[in-house]
Amino acid sequence: MHTLELFWMQNRVNDVLDLAKRRGFFWAAYETYGGSAGLYVLGDLGVKLMNNVEELWRDTFVRPHDFVEVDTPSLMPMPLLEASGHVANFKDPMAECLNCHRKYRADHLLSDAGKKIQESLSIEQIKKELTDLAIRCPECGSTSWEVKPFLTMFETRIGPYADNIAYLRPETAQGIFVEFNRLFQIERSRIPIGIAQIGRGFRNEISPRQGIIRLREFHMLELELFMDPNDTKCKYIDEVLKEELYILDERRILQGEMDAVAISIMDALASSIIKTEWLAYFMALSQRFLQSLGVPREKQRFVEKITGERAHYSAQTFDHEVFMYELGWIEVAGHAYRTDYDLTSHMKKTGAEYTASVQLDEPQKVKRRVWSIDVQKLKEREPVRWKEVMKEYSNIKDRTNTPPQSIAGIAVDPSFIIIKEEEVMLQSRKFIPHVVEPSFGGERVMLACLLYAYDIRDKRNVMHLPYRLAPIKAGVFPLVNKLEMEKTAQQIYSKIKKAGIPCIYDDSGSIGRRYARVDEIGTPFAVTVDDRTLQDSTVTIRERDTWKQRRVNQESVVDELLRNSNS
RNA sequence: GCGACGAUCGUCCAGCCUGGUCUAGGACAUCAGCCCUCCAAGCUGGUAACGCGGGUUCAAAUCCCGCUCGUCGCACCA
User: What is the pTM of this model?
Assistant: First the structure.
């Protein structure tokens, strides 16, 4: 590679971040107060670009499938996130060595020492274990520890009562899961169904380096696809079967492979590299989405999360990564097969029923065993406590399985349990839907888009943003500041604006300078009014990507611009 | 959290070691105007900064301490 080219490659991210700040796409927040890591501001261009990214996402993932969209609160009460497993999984016990102040995951220290850990160990218990086992700091050998939980969710309180703890959501998905029943009913119990949400997620990262890559508050674009676990077909799968993805799957990772290989969706499904059709379909869409944002296919890959690295809710996860020059491979999306983990968890916690049912083609005869309690016999055995048993018994709705070992503390005894075999005609089949989830980080997608749009031509910055993503579609300039030219240019500007096309008017500095200014923010067209306009009503349209100009009648400028709205 | 290094106009950099000459300089960007010109390059003028707090001193951008933030490394990263 040429030295100069190499130099430019190495500075691409910095150049783009610099441009983003200078022109108002985004920048680090609260600098006047000294700054606060992991928080970013989107400026006008950033807001417009993010909106366009979101619209493109809707056009890719939501609208073609008639999926629906919701907007749930960012604040979530603690019990909800306890049920989802986030409170347990986002609250790592951190052990700090009191001598050298290095920090470790306390559970890792214990398991390294060969100690089996229970999920439910309290902070005090962990501290006691560390002391009892005389575990030494791996760095300095000290045995004195301070154990504290580190919470990666932001904690707050709802209302005046201190015990009403809430968190800012670490993902938007939980809002969809807990509202599943109503959403499902509103959508007339269609299955499969996709429910989308665009919103903000919050994570209290320990040290959010890498600027806009790791944020404490960020845009999430999530879609939850609910499907029947016995009918996991995706009706759109044929459209993508031949598409190839670069995949690095778990098996190859465990073999020590580092490189992703191209494989078709068809083959990936046939060889079970991707476990379910919807997941494969969304991965293909995800690749297309990034392609339409300007990221070539070869600069994208899907890396499977190996067991143990995966989130607590996931049966299979692929990270969708984009090569971002100096930053290396950066995850822009996670594609997770969450099974029925979330709905089941919320059911257990709340007693609500998150189920769907499908009508069977023909009713089925099913034999099943049902157990019940013989009250008379129970009374004989437990003359005092039988009422307690019956009270708890009446809360057990599903009696088709084997009876529990004890009810209300009374050991279940065959002497008062009746087990009946019965035959029922089932008209429908009930199930807890399984969930497949593509989840994007908005800022990272936006950055990927800017990185691949960025180019330097004749020492000038040019952002080759696709038309639909460009925050500003056109600049309108009078060639020189003559009153009539300005007037005509202003008229054209108003006309474009009224047509709903974002555009700017600029008459300051030389024409070349103005072209340079709009090139840098990715504005695809410049409309220039010159002397000839005043004679024959034509203007020039100058294209950002070629710097070529053509003359069109000023009446047709809006049409010329609108012709590009799909590109 | 630890360690190393750092923080000056919008941006990049100079000044700091050796305190005063700094009313903090330059370049690019930006703004007003001139020029009236199709690709940032001419001319005139303007706006604009020493991260925060404390100390030393007659005097602090400059020396010292604390804090905040940043970069990198360690650790962490459902």
Answer: 0.84
CA–CA dist A258, A213 (Å, integer): 23
Cis amide linkage into residue A502, ω under 30° from 0:
no
| ipTM for this prediction | 0.82
pLDDT per residue as tens digits for the range A292-340 = 999 999 999 999 988 877 777 788 999 999 998 888 889 999 999 998 9
- Residue A245: closest CA among A272, A274, A218: A274
Contact, A340 CB vs strand B, < 7 Å: no
Main-chain phi, psi angles of A415, to 5 degrees: -65, -25
Whether CB of A305 is under 7 Å from strand B: the answer is: no
| Amino acid letter for position A151 | L
Is the C-beta of residue A515 closer than 7 Å to nucleic acid chain B?
yes
Q: Tell me the C-alpha to C-alpha distance, in Å, between residue A437 and each of A149, A190, A227, A415, A440.
A: 29, 18, 11, 48, 10
What CA–CA distance (Å, rounded) separates A123 from A143? 17
Instruction: List the single protein residue with the shortest CA to C1' distance from B39.
Output: A512
The answer to whether the beta carbon of residue A488 comes closer than 7 angstroms to any atom of strand B is no
DSSP per-residue string spanning A381-438: H-TTTHHHHHHHHTT----SSPPPSEETTEEP-GGGEEEEEEEEEEEEEEEPPEEEEE
Considering only CA atoms, which residue is closest to the C1' of nucleotide B7? A34
